[in-house]
Amino acid sequence: MIKELQLRILPKEAFNEQSLRRVVCRETGENPEAINAVRVLKRSVDARQRTVYVNVSLRVFINEEPAGNIYKTIEYKDVSGGKQVVVVGGGPGGLFAALRLIELGLRPVVIERGKNVHERKKDIALISREHRVNPESNYCFGEGGAGAYSDGKLYTRSKKRGSVERILHIFCQHGAAPAILSDVHPHIGTDKLPRVIENIRNRILCSGGEVHFETCMESLIIKGDEALGVNTRDGRLFMGPVILATGHSARDVYRYLAMQNIAVEAKGIAVGVRLEHPQALIDRIRYHDENGRGEYLPAAEYSFVTQSADRGVYSFCMCPGGFVVPAATGPEEVVVNGMSPSNRSSQWANSGMVVEIRPEDLRNRRLRITGADLGETKEALCTDSASGVANLPLSGSESLHVMHFQEQLERLCRINGGMRQTAPAQRMADFVRKCNSSELPVSSYIPGLQASPLHFWMPEFITSRLREGFRHFDKISCGFLTNEAVMIGVETRTSSPVRILRDRETMRHITLKGLYPCGEGAGYAGGIVSAAIDGERCAECVAASF
After folding, report:
1. Which residues partner with 186 through β-bridges?
2. pLDDT for 135-144, tens place per residue?
3. Distances (CA, A) of 41 to 4, 6, 48, 50, 487
4. Bridge partners of 491?
5. CA 32: distance to chain centroid?
6. First vs last Cα of the chain: how many Å apart?
7. Distances (CA, A) of 12 to 6, 38, 54, 423, 482
8. For the chain, what percent of residues have pLDDT higher than 90?
9. Does 273 sit behind a cis peptide bond, omega within 30 degrees of 0 on the bond before it?
């Protein structure tokens, strides 16, 4: 017999299999010997009240053995003789597009500008140790995409585009822990995700597909109104319909498309900082207990959102027990992101704290360009051509003006951080009071912090909204606004600044046949799962076109 139970229990009863069995016996009246297995279907922490509870959905096997795997598996056929499809990008959009192509009998050829997931790790280490940024191998570029070494969260707010459950089952089939199927906020972790990515790559290869690393797309092969394949920087040609899944930081691709008059448009983004607190402080606030999370609860998370001057202000990619990492894709910029290992065991909690920015917000806006090396303060229009001002070249391209603002702010951040990967930072309460921070707390950010007046040199239309947002969040969670927290600049890579226009039904570019803009880099996803779903949809549309 199989029973399903919905329970609301204490933390000490929920995170241990033996204690769960005791709860099941109590609730069902069954003899312990009769219970052969207890599977957790869903589990979430409810910390809204003073007493913290855990909501769990259980499947109980009574005098019956569970059959098969917890997760569903897919049989991938040999597609060596199948029609070829070129997949540009080896992130979640590209990898899941390739897997779905194999299911549909097509042969994927994946080209990835960065290195494989293990070689990439060496270049990432050099950013922190030696402040050296490899433009082709970093936290954004390389096998697995931006999520591989920047957290590996698997939850998404998107419910309309496809099956989230299917994506999670495919991850499990390739080595992810089955716990991601039950957790409300599933998370693989940066220490575990690379092995899963490698397994996906091996699946593609064993099925007859190809994967080429350090192979960057130079241009599309276009005949008339159709994309027939791609040229690469090393002179190779790859023929077939093109799924373009480059990720949100492939600015060279955006510039190429705009120069070729391939329809793209400016898209809204969110910009702000990484905010880092001691994890113990967040535990005390969120669990309403001066002793913190105790023995059974996980590192506490938070999610905040409010409105300020008709724009959203919100937390983004919250990383409990995590680290702040350098996410630049070039040596002339400083960008930060956050990540957590699977056990979320560090002493810090961080999240992006960002302000919604729409394309119209940036027209004729000015950035204050300042730094000790300049000897003076200068200003530059976001959409003017002003190359030579503090080495911040700008452009007037309407479709790329959000991207140009993003670039400016990252370069300005490097100037104010000390011209290396050292990041400018300010204590949170000092920022709200518009005071300089004479010293900074210990941080997880390995390249180091430089005390800097973020309230002065970051754009006022961002900083004023952040200040208002922080005051509001402190009313919701008393103690959140504190000088124990440090703001680290800048968080700009929340999403693509460009949308590559495509037909809603066929997923094909609106003017160029054979080109399928895909995932986060094309402006149609936000995170690992939604990018993976979008990759599958693009693969299905390519198959339908054949």
Report:
1. none
2. 999 999 999 9
3. 9, 10, 22, 26, 37
4. 272
5. 43
6. 47
7. 17, 16, 9, 40, 31
8. 79
9. no
Q: Given phi > 0 = left and psi -120 to 50 = alpha, else beta, which region is 337?
A: beta
**What is the CB neighbour count within 10 angstroms for residue 33?**
8
Q: What span, in angstroms and rounded, lies between the C-alpha atoms of 237 and 392? A: 35
Which pair of structure tokens corresponds to residue 77? Answer: 């056929």
**d(C-alpha 146, C-alpha 94), whole Å:** 12
What single-letter DSSP state applies at residue 156?
-
Phi/psi of residue 401, each to 5°? -70, -25
CB burial string 209-241: b at 16+ within 10 A, e below: bbbebbbbbeebbbeeeebbbbebeeeeebebb
Enter the pTM of the model.
0.91
pLDDT surpassing 50 at residue 520: yes
Q: Tokens standing for 375?
A: 């000897």
Residue 44's H or E segment, with its range, is: strand 35-46
Q: How far apart are CA 277 and CA 347, in angstroms?
A: 9
b (16+ CB within 10 A) / e for 190-208:
bebbbebbbebbebbeebb
Confidence of residue 184 (pLDDT cuts 50, 70, 90): confident
- Number of residues written out for the chain: 546
**Count of CB atoms within 10 A of residue 149's CB?**
24
SS3 of residue 380 by DSSP: strand
Contacts of 354 (CB under 8 A, 6+ apart): 270, 271, 272, 273, 313, 314, 315, 316, 491, 494
